[in-house]
């Protein structure tokens, strides 16, 4: 351990000083070294190791989830495959939902640091997936209050309680419906900086593409130009295009994805006429809506609705 500490510029003597502090970069660098040394992404904290690559392939399985609720549901299944110490349980109750780590009675009790790191990982990855730091109503831990309990306020955006029935975070249920907007190139950068981006979650500024999408949704059926949107978001048109490019998207792509997602929801969940859907999305005719939708999905709206319809009279 002394050799690993020295490699990241941490004096081993600091371990004996209760008031000693490290930078986030030092801690993250040390964590990466320990993961490599232990061959375990949760360094020997659980009964089975999470081999390097577990987080990458977990995140890959979450990227195409339509929203955070689906992503967390998938994650619960992946964790069940990878370890035996706990299950990830998501209670989507309104208006506050609970994301909990339920320890297995058949396994050895989880160490407090193991529960702490796993909950931090879930909060950090969930925040990253939707591109905004998720505020927490409160955080519960099943272990007793430690001497350094006050430090938790710097790690969790919400009040922290100890000696609770289970370890869990509580958040507004609306966050579960927020879409997953990350891409594989963004995942590579996220993993390269790990654990900084999930352990020390910041996301001080919401993604401009998300703000743009929400603004465009409020304006429908009116269709806006990039100049209109830039003025409403208080940035120049040039800045709008530049920042959208940095986020891996464009004005037209954000607009198309918004209208595509709304169209898919209406086609599969309602029986609204095509002409009404086209008008609500700002198209000047049903024909132009048909052309755009086929370009987005490869199918006409009618074919897509037929595939998504519930079975009738035994037919699929």
From TrEMBL:
Q: Where is the HTH araC/xylS-type domain?
A: 210-307
UniProt-listed InterPro entries: AraC-type_N, Homeodomain-like_sf, HTH_AraC
- Gene Ontology terms, MF aspect: DNA-binding transcription factor activity; transcription cis-regulatory region binding
Q: Which Pfam families does the entry mention?
A: Arabinose_bd, HTH_18
Record keywords: DNA-binding, Transcription, Transcription regulation
Asked if the keyword Phosphoprotein belongs to this entry, the reply reads no
Q: Does the keyword Transcription apply?
A: yes
Q: Which domain of life is it from?
A: Bacteria
Q: Kindly provide the name given to this protein in its UniProt entry.
A: AraC family transcriptional regulator
Task: Give the organism, scientific name.
Answer: Caldimonas thermodepolymerans
Lineage, please? Bacteria, Pseudomonadati, Pseudomonadota, Betaproteobacteria, Burkholderiales
């Amino acid at each position: 351990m002394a050799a690993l500490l020295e490699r990241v510029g941490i004096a081993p003597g600091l371990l004996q000083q209760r008031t000693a502090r490290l930078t986030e970069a030092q801690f993250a660098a040390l964590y990466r070294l320990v993961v490599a040394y232990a061959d375990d992404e949760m360094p020997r904290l659980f009964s089975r190791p999470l081999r390097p690559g577990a987080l990458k392939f977990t995140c890959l399985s979450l990227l195409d989830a339509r929203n955070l609720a689906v992503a967390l549901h998938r994650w619960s299944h992946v964790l069940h495959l990878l370890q035996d110490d706990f299950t990830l349980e998501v209670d989507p109750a309104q208006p506050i939902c609970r994301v909990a780590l339920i320890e297995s009675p058949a396994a050895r009790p989880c160490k407090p640091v193991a529960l702490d790191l796993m909950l931090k990982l879930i909060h950090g990855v969930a925040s990253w997936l939707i591109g905004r730091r998720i505020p927490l109503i409160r955080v519960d831990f099943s272990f007793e209050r430690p001497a350094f309990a006050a430090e938790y306020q710097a790690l969790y955006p919400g009040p922290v309680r100890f000696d609770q029935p289970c370890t869990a975070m509580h958040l507004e249920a609306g966050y579960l419906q927020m879409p997953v907007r990350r891409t594989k190139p963004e995942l590579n950068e996220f993993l390269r900086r790990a654990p900084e981006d999930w352990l020390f979650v910041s996301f001080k500024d919401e993604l401009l593409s998300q703000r743009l999408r929400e603004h465009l949704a409020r304006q429908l059926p009116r269709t806006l130009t990039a100049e209109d949107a830039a003025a409403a978001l208080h940035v120049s048109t040039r800045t709008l295009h530049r920042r959208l490019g940095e986020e891996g998207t464009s004005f037209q792509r954000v607009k198309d994805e918004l209208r595509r997602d709304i169209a898919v929801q209406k086609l599969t969940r309602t029986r609204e006429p095509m002409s009404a859907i086209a008008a609500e999305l700002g198209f000047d005719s049903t024909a132009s809506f048909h052309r755009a939708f086929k370009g987005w999905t490869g199918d006409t709206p009618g074919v897509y609705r037929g595939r998504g319809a519930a079975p009738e009279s035994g037919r699929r």
